[in-house]
Amino acid sequence: MVSFVEKRHQILRCGIAFGQDRCLEIGALVDPVLRRQDGNIFYADHLSTENLKKQFSWDKKFNFERLVEVDYVWDNHQPLKECVKGSFDYVIASHVGEHVPNLIGWINQIGNVLTPNGQLRLALPDGRYSFDMKRQESKLSDLLAAWMKKSYCPETHLVLDFALNKVDDQLVQDMHRRYIKDFDASDLPSQFPFSEVLEWGERTLNPNHYEDVHCWVLHLNLLARFMIILSKNNLIKMACAGWHDIDPPNTYEFIVYLTPEMDTEKRVASWEDLYIQTKKATVSYDKLTQETIELFKQENIQLREELNSMYASSSWRITAPLRAIMKRLKR
Question: Which InterPro entries does its entry note (predicted)?
């Protein structure tokens, strides 16, 4: 049986012409999806290899022999385009995006080093089934605030939310083994005592202190909803080029492919399709009755109406200020 890690690697590596395509993996550490021997493979991280060894020196379980040799150091204070050489056909980031303080800016930075038909491939944990399961889902307003502030470190309220609600890893693994759909995690014990939670928050008051937490609690349908608004308003010019949702109890992470797309209608349509597909229940279409098909048609209409309603409400409260901000930022 293929392990969830092997399955992840298969999906993230699928279709890459190794030896021909130029590939960059971000945050590979000791478990790279792309292997140096594959050819034209480069690694980027926020620290050099030697400094990564220092960062993880406390961790007795860290396998330093498997740590990849970092080619490019990107600490987010400098545009990625200035940190690397040339452009890439594929950029891979597995379980990195949830840690990034400014996710919108980070995606755009990567988009700037992709070839015209290149892809950014992300593997992200589904927050509903990770150790973030007690936390509230991320808000678009928080993503926008981090982008406007060009945040380099996680915001205090997000760090506190993480520390207050993180569930112990072992408990999460136990729950994965006895998967229950739509499980209510609100009564689960949190990992950290309250006194320690305050310490986490206090450390973030130093503007240069980076606290390594999950900034974002996402699932694929929620990401699609955010991307519809962000792509519609030209904050992210990337379309959805492919996706794989969670497959409980085998895997609780989702994978999404993004590709540069300058046509607003095309990129918005790609995220709308993803939103609708992940909103619907999965059904084997060869077994559908005519009644069920009609039900799905009605559901599609309702989802389209929901999207239109979302546009209307967002346009009044969000879009106009964003356009004004974008004009100021471009001056």
Answer: SAM-dependent_MTases_sf
Cβ–Cβ contacts within 10 Å for residue 165, how many? 21
pLDDT at 194: 94
* Domains of the chain, first to last: 4-287 (3.40.50.150), 296-330 (no CATH)
Task: Find out whether 260 and 238 touch, Cβ atoms under 8 Å.
Answer: yes
Q: For residue 151, what are its two tokens?
A: 């945040």
Note whether 106 and 100 are within 8 A (CB): yes
What is the torsional sign of CA 233, 223, 134, 96? negative
Q: Which two tokens stand for residue 279?
A: 């909103």
Burial (0-12, 13-18, 19+ Cβ within 10 Å), 236: buried
Confidence category of residue 305, pLDDT binned at 50, 70, 90: confident
Nearest to 233 by CA among 331, 139, 119, 104: 104
pLDDT, one tens digit per residue, over 6-44 is 999 999 999 999 989 999 999 999 999 999 999 999 999
Model pTM score? 0.85
Residue-wise pLDDT for 151-198, tens only, equals: 999 999 999 999 999 999 988 888 888 777 777 888 889 999 999 999
Burial 299-329 (b: 16+ CB within 10 A, else e): eeeebeeebeeeeeebeeeeeeebeeeeeee
